[in-house]
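Hi L.,

You mentioned the student needs an example of a multi-chain input paired with its predicted structure. This one should do, with 483 residues in total across all chains.
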Amino acid sequence: MYEQIARNKWKSVALVVFFMAFIFLLTWFFEYATGWGKGGLVLAVVISMVTAAAGYYSSEKVVLAISRARPVTKEEYPYLYNVVEGLAIAAGLPTPRCYVIDDTAPNAFATGRNPQHAVICVTTGIIEKLNRVELEGVIAHEMSHIKNYDVRLQTVVVVMAGVVALLSDWILRSFLWGGGRRRGGRGERGGGGAGAILILVGLALAVLSPFIATIIQLAVSRKREFLADASGAMLTRYPAGLASALRKISADTEPLEAANKATAHLYIVNPLKDIKGAVNRLFSTHPPIEERIAALEKM
Amino acid sequence: MGALVVFLIIIAAVAIMAVGMYNSLVTLRNRCDNAWSQVDVQLRRRYDLIPNLVETVKGYAKHETGVFERVTQARTAAINANTVKDQAQAENVLTGALKSLFAVAEAYPDLKANQNFLMLQEELAGTEGKVAYARQFYNDNVMKFNMRQQIFPSNIIANMFSFKPRDYFQIEEEVARGPVKVSF
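Structure written out for the whole complex:
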């Protein structure tokens, strides 16, 4: 378990560094192409550092905003708060803040960069559709994500991968639509072949980057869902509760509107509901629900 | 000269190990204390809820005095319990008494619709859940602490500084395991 936590922390750092390098390269290519020279290099370093820091420290806010979640008080949802407080005690963690998404599709996720800044977010649907032991199972699963520092990695991934995808999209467009103008400009300075190669590399990077982002997302999920299921069951000492909750959530066909490809891997069950067939399974962020239930029932 | 250096190095290594073991025993003992205070906080919260609950039920079911007395007595006994063992025993009695209180409430439909009663019931169920989790956390910590006192070589240090194993906080009664369940 401690090994897992250490690995998660290390991966988070690696991811932030990778992200910084990526942003740096992208901005630098962009600025090289537009002819900024040395000043552009410095600017690229500054931009990459600022975006990485901003992404790291605001990641949970970004995630919550994307998911259209709102904070709730204990007076509004005493039931939810009691369950969360109980499991925080069981896990020996500070009580996370609670957020709610007004959606009838049952689902839940946790976010935050460490246990002190953790947030547990559930849909109103999950509160209505699950009974107490099932909800405890779900919250215990999320609490394990917090305890294992999965949330830091997963949250950082949302923001970093999101920005990578957005930026590469943006650069690709600027190459496609602004290519002619820039070619003319460089012709006057006589940059020639090297510039063209750089543009090609930049273009390749821009085309590849959404795939890179997707791969990062896949690499960070899956196994840890099994682990969170197991350690969640350790917290409640009642694996059947979570198993029954997973069955209920997966049986519900309603998609969650506030979820998208960037945040799907955060949720306890894939909120996009379009995972069918071997290929999709290969690219899925979650292990198949039947396997998770089977693993829980074996405990 | 060489032998002396080797001897001193061995002594130093043993001393460092002993210090490490002593410190980890102290850390574990403090964790047990901290976990117990968590249990205590939740138990207090539960005791605070009970008078309110009794009052609310009394408003609808005046004649069930026997049940009210049992709950009140069990509560007092639980508050006054000193050791972990006594506390566990008193909690068992209290849980039983509360169960009969909720059984009484079953017979009064007006009471079951009372908003205040429903709220108290949710609070109590939530608090019982927290007691259970705090107990589990405490017992896990006690297990680690006791284990460290028994395994070699830290048992030597534990004996030397007379560390005492802690009691587990156990709820014996099989039915007392879950939170009080009341069906409507």
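You could point out the following to them. The interface with chain B takes residues 78-79, 81-83, 85-87, 89-92, 132, 136, 235, 237 of chain A (CB under 8 Å). Confidence is low (pLDDT under 50) at residues 180-191 of chain A.

Best wishes,
N.
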